[in-house]
Amino acid sequence: MRKLAMATAAAAFGAMLAAPAMAQDGPFAGGRVEALAGYDNVQDGGDGSSEGTSGFTYGGLVGYDIQRGNTVFGLEGEVTDATTSTRSYNALAAGDRFSVEAGRDFYLGGRIGAVISPQAMVYAKGGYTNARVESRYTTGATGATETIDKVNLDGFRVGAGLEYKLSPTSFIKGEYRYSHYGNVDNVDIDLDRHQLMAGIGIRF
Fold this sequence. Notes:
The structure is a single chain. The chain is elongated and about 65 Å long. The chain has 1 helix and 9 strands, in the order αβββββββββ. The protein has an 8-stranded antiparallel β-barrel. By secondary structure, the chain is mainly β. Its main location: membrane.
């Protein structure tokens, strides 16, 4: 998966560098900005019985595409946040609460698409993701909250989706993506993240 993610991003980047200026023309070419929202699920990849924890994710994306015939190559960067969290009570003392929350997520990668009609394109994507996880402990006696830790997780992401044009400059899209985070401070955490995203964007 990691090799696939890096290969997708590298192929898109290389094609964009090699393409002449005239190859940028096409209904799916040019810069774009998007608003994103969707379903987020985080789980322990090492436990096949784990259902994980789910929440809502939202954010924005900027990207640039070129088109050669029916093939589209793009680069994109994304920033999202999430409501995904898990909580346990009476962890260390009566009335206390321990919570782990997903935070901001940075993504940088590439995509390769195939135009299947004048309005629609299917694509695959891959790249690098850096997600923050924050843990908190709240005592039962005083209600005081102490931030225990904020950890940044490095990983890779792969995904696929469909983009559909509403007009020459606007579009919507649906996308599934999978992210994996391997280790923190040489500790293998084996964390998997599954997301179903919807987006609306403007191309310019």
